[in-house]
Amino acid sequence: xxxxxxxxxxxxxxxxxxxxxxxAGKTSIVRALTGAGAVGNGYAPGTKDAAVYDFxxxxxxxxxxxxxxxxEAWHDAADDIAAAxxxxxxxxxxxxxxxxxxxxxxxxxxxLKLPVLLVFTGADLVAEDGAQERVRAxxxxxxxxxxxFVSLALPREGVVTGVxxxxxxxxxFMPRAAAVLRRADEARSFREMRSVVLRYAAMxxxxxxxxxxxAAAVPAAQGAMLQALAKRHKVELTPARxxxxxxxxxxxxxxxxxxxxxxxxxxxxxxxxxxxxxxxAAAGASFATTYALGRAASxxxxxxxxxxxxxxATLRALYDQALKGVRNAAD
Length: 331
Prior knowledge:
The chain is α/β, with parallel strands linked by helices. The protein has 2 domains: 2-173, P-loop containing nucleotide triphosphate hydrolases (Rossmann fold, 3-Layer(aba) Sandwich); 186-328. Helices cover 55% and strands 11% of the residues. The protein is built from 11 helices and 7 strands. It has helices spanning 26-34, 78-87, 103-111, 129-143, 163-173, 175-207, 213-233, 239-249, 251-267, 273-305, 312-324; strands at residues 2-4, 15-20, 51-55, 62-66, 90-96, 116-121, 149-152. It has a 7-stranded mixed beta sheet, sandwiched between helices. Helix 5 (163-173) packs across helix 6 and helix 6 runs antiparallel to helix 7. The longest helix is centred in the middle third of the chain and has 33 residues, at 175-207. It is elongated. The relative contact order is 0.10. Mean pLDDT is 74; it is low at 1-11, 37-47 and 251-281.
């Protein structure tokens, strides 16, 4: 993610305005959603001037407009608000649960002619549900109407919670942007699963060196990998779900995978050359295909866990991309 001084064009790239008092966690939310850029530090005040962040940096699907915190002494936010309102497509209005003095924020929201999502931060600071509801009711009464809301915890150190609810809410405001941000969240999730996939890919490669042994050992390693990934994603891997995954990856791709595996086993039986070059090639191929299967399966399991499994084209693209880049997988 990069900071840019360009004026966003709402006709081409949707602009999401983050609005709130200083220290509400605006830049921390950008960091949590994109996983890119050294922005955000829990609830510490940070933004001194308005900034625009493109995500992704090369071909942005969403722009975050992070304006200076409202209510700061000696700072007149009128110009910032007018400029942001002319640029933005929707507003995320951040309100901390432990800060009920929100007069400036409430006055601004009342005048907005944009879709608004209230983002209550500080769920880790005010943990009691009843106390949170009292704050939300107070803000509703001040604004004078009901608005959709989500709750987030933004600990200085630790996992931000509530991001999935925020992405779900964004689906109704900016479907395209929400889809891109969800893919970024899945990619971060895979980075946590990557060591699991590498371990089973290495097991598959090692077991495929000896003739015949790999015929049973490689599928067993891949099956164990799928079960391990499903456990990490908290998804029960039933036969029906395995069938759905196979269908999403494409029957043709799985048939080619199985056929090439059988051919590699036969090649290893050829005296001398087959037992050296053939074994090495089989081991490398089993490592690569197992890693690629793990990458695609992790995305599918992530989507299943969140109620929106990726389509076949997305999964096949992930599989092919992982297969081509497998030389760097163990770096």
